[in-house]
Amino acid sequence: MSVIKWFKPKAVVVVSSLLTAGTILFPHQLHAQLPSMSEPPWTGFFSGYQQRDYEFGINNEGVMELYLMTKKKERVGHTRTIKIYPQVLIENDQGKRFYRSLNEDEGFATEIKPSLEHKEVKFTGETKGGVKLEINVKYDRSEIILDGKVLDKGDIKDPKVYFSYKVKVPAMYTSTYKDEDKAKSRMRKDKVRFIRAKDGKRVTLKSYEEVDVLAEENAKDGVRELEVDMDGQEGKKLIFGSLDEKSTLIFTNRPADKKGKLWEGYEVLWLREMGDASAKPFVIEVK
User: Fold this and answer.
1) C-alpha to C-alpha distance for 252 and 265, rounded to whole angstroms
2) Fewer C-beta neighbours within 10 Å, C or N terminus of the chain?
3) In what order do the strands lie in the sheet with 120-126?
4) What are phi and psi of 124, to 5 degrees?
5) Is residue 16 over pLDDT 60?
6) Is-contact 253 214, C-beta < 8 A?
């Protein structure tokens, strides 16, 4: 993943096996849900990964959860859990987009057993209408490397079909900070920084100011890399990018069509069009 110049440089190892086809074979039999662990706190999770700064899990419905760790080595509260959804994005002739999420209780397949020892996992899942998706996740210390593709577009007749990961980042502070003075005092050092995809310009936004992320001067045409540094993240930085310098991420408010304060939440979207082998994997880094 590329690094904006104000970041400390960090080498990224690209592991070619992530994209190598045929390394894991899938059984023909489909399962209601992914197999899962039974011991807390990983009950109901197919895969888990534990690091000093974060924990990451894939539950038995294919939804991914990222937990930042406190100084006491505990997960942050449930309200600050970051969720990542594998899904299909459909674009019609008029450019309008629709989403379909994985079915919660059918259509999954994998030969991998549930574990906290995975280095890489691969499974398939289905959405409504018989759309089949392949999901790949690799764990690499401070990074989660996410990849995937549409295997079968099922009943979709629209011209453009994409595999996507949607990251939903919730409010990183409590409602106490609805007060403007308290918010400015607590969040004065927070920074939301990104490289604009259309011209490579570096943009910095404040977490407590109301902004329209999709405005022309901000991220209307997407970003190449996004770094979010908030005090409410337990001293951790979240970096969203890809394994090349060309891939574009979509960065929006929550909801996307309204102005908002970024501490109250935002979304990041990574896309790969069906049949496109050039798009590089999505990377989420915690540092």
Assistant:
1) 9
2) C
3) 120-126, 132-140, 143-152, 282-286, 237-242, 223-229, 191-196, 202-205
4) -115, 155
5) no
6) yes
Backbone angles phi, psi at 162, to 5 degrees: -125, 145
For 177-196, letters b (16+ CB in 10 Å) and e give: beeeeebeebbeebebbbbb
Q: Are 80 and 72 in contact (CB under 8 A)?
A: no
Domain ranges of the chain: 30-286
Torsion of CA 142, 34, 83, 2, to 10 degrees: 40
| Residue 266 CA to its chain's centroid (Å) | 11
pTM: 0.88
Average pLDDT over residues 206-234: 96
Nearest partner of 144 among 242, 71, 256, 210, judged by Cα? 242
- Residue 187 scores a pLDDT above 50: yes
Q: For residue 129, how far is the Cα from the chain centroid?
A: 24
Cα dist. 224→35, 79, 221, 227, 281 in Å?
35, 28, 10, 10, 13
Instruction: Decide yes or no: CATH 2.70.98 for domain 30-286.
Output: yes
